[in-house]
Design brief:
With 260 residues, the chain is of the alpha/beta class. 39% of the residues lie in helices and 17% in strands. It has an eight-stranded mixed beta sheet with strand order 3-4-2-5-1-6-7-8, with helices on both faces.
């Protein structure tokens, strides 16, 4: 049965799209899942840029506005993940009723194991449309008190919508004194912490080249956490090494070492 998971946050800049893009390639390339990721942040779209995509004539904006099949707005990445981008142009916002997102993504259920919706931060109209469209919700936040208050507010909204919260992904943890620990976060929010992803400068480097960090640096601590979340999503036990050992064994670096 196809799962539709919405990924959201209380504010922008917490790394929500980074998580969506990396999970998409991991689940598709290394777990052989049929995965489509959809940019539901139509007023401030970024998802396609994380894959180095700058030109895409058909977007989810056009699908909503003109009633065309969403498959026309799907672009397959070389890892196998399908990307449905939102328009980068302000003109693309005209005539777009975001509440229709739930209806336009329905055809994707027939051909995917997992659909991940990259939602808009906050609790505005776009965010609510994404929440209505998904089956379950993952919340991305940072380990500070102001962000936890956003989580509590969202949990109340999810309860009203009768939507299941899968839990929290704590992103960009730096180990500073003012950061909240996972136990403290779970007690305050009454939600499970699924993963605690450390701050990683390689993530920022990957954004400049338009490629999810897991593809170039699967060995980093952040990439390993992305991998753990992917295991958790498909219900498989994570074992230290595993896919990472395979990637390292057949990396270009090691091939050259073996030839020398």
């Amino acid at each position: 049965m196809t799962k539709v998971i919405g990924v959201t946050s209380g504010k922008g800049g917490v790394g929500k799209t980074t998580i969506v893009s990396n999970l998409g390639v991991i689940l598709s390339k290394y777990f052989n899942k049929n995965v489509t990721i959809v940019d539901c942040n139509v007023t401030n779209s970024h998802l396609a840029l994380y894959f180095g995509m700058y030109y895409f004539p058909v977007t989810i904006n056009k699908v909503i506005r003109e009633g065309i099949n969403i498959e026309e707005a799907m672009y397959k990445h070389y890892t196998g993940v399908n990307i449905v981008p939102a328009s980068l142009s302000l003109s693309g916002l005209r005539g777009v009723d975001v509440i229709k997102i739930k209806d336009v993504i329905q055809p994707l259920r027939e051909k995917n194991d997992l659909i991940i919706l990259d939602g808009s931060p906050g609790m505005g109209r776009e965010s609510m449309a994404m929440l209505h469209a998904c089956d379950k919700v993952l919340f991305v936040t940072n380990p500070i008190m102001s962000s936890m208050i956003d989580v509590v507010r969202f949990r109340e909204v999810l309860n009203e919508l009768n939507k299941e919260a899968l839990g929290l992904i704590i992103n960009m943890r730096q180990g500073m004194k003012n950061e909240m620990g996972n136990d403290e976060i779970e007690k305050f929010t009454e939600m499970d912490v699924i993963s605690s992803i450390p701050y990683d400068k390689n993530v920022y480097k990957s954004l400049t080249v338009g490629s999810p960090v897991f593809l170039s640096r699967p060995d980093t601590r952040a990439s390993k956490e992305f991998l753990k979340v992917a295991h958790w999503l498909v219900g498989e036990e994570y074992q230290e090494g595993g896919i990472l050992n395979f990637l390292q064994k057949f990396s270009i670096k090691n091939i050259f070492q073996n030839l020398s």
